[in-house]
Structures are given as structure tokens and as C-alpha cells.
Write a structure and sequence with these properties.
By secondary structure, the chain is mainly alpha-helical. 87% of the residues lie in helices and 0% in strands. It is built from three helices and no strands. Helix 1 runs antiparallel to helix 2 and helix 2 runs antiparallel to helix 3. It is elongated and about 50 Å long. It starts with a helix and ends with a helix. The model has no long low-confidence stretch (mean pLDDT 90). It comes from Paenibacillus rhizoplanae. This is YqhV family protein. Keywords: Membrane, Transmembrane, Transmembrane helix. InterPro entries: Uncharacterised_YqhV (IPR020390). Pfam families: DUF2619.
């Protein structure tokens, strides 16, 4: 198995585990204001995992891609994050 694919899938499993844990915490707290605070914390996890997973994938493909293609991918990720994080 490719080590980059293992890392990428591991990061996604971690992200999913954090989401499930947050849902269980929300149920345990049983208050809307506290559940909203937990949910707000997840807003940091999603983009972070996206960046890390993309970085690992690009590292694995770096030998196969030209600098121009890597630049276009970087621009795409930056635009995606701008759209997600813009208030």
C-alpha cells in the first residue's frame, strides 16, 4: 500500500472520528448554546484536514507533476479555502 494514500486515509479517519466525538459531546451536553460552541470548533478541523490531506497527496505526486500544474493546484486550494473561510 502506498504510504501517501495511507496517510491521506488516516487523516480522513481522524477527521471523521473528531466529527463523531463532537456529535456525542453535543448529545451529552444537551444544550443548544454549548452544542453550537462545539460545532464552531469543528469549523477549524475541516479546513485543516483538507489542507493536510491535499499537502500529503501533492507530496506523493510531486515527482509526476510540473511546477506549473502544482501552482494551479495551489491556486485552486487557496480559492476553495477563501470561499470556505470568508465571512
Amino acid at each position: 500500500m502506498d504510504k501517501y494514500v495511507s496517510w491521506m486515509s488516516g487523516l480522513r479517519l481522524l477527521s471523521g472520528s473528531v466529527e463523531i466525538a463532537a456529535a456525542l459531546i453535543m448529545l451529552k451536553l444537551n444544550q443548544v448554546d454549548k452544542a453550537l460552541a462545539v460545532n464552531s470548533g469543528l469549523a477549524f478541523v475541516g479546513p485543516t484536514i483538507l489542507i493536510l490531506t491535499t499537502a500529503v497527496g501533492l507530496t506523493g505526486m510531486a515527482e509526476q507533476l510540473s511546477w506549473g500544474k502544482l501552482g494551479w493546484i495551489g491556486c485552486g486550494v487557496a480559492i476553495l479555502l477563501f470561499g470556505i473561510l470568508k465571512k
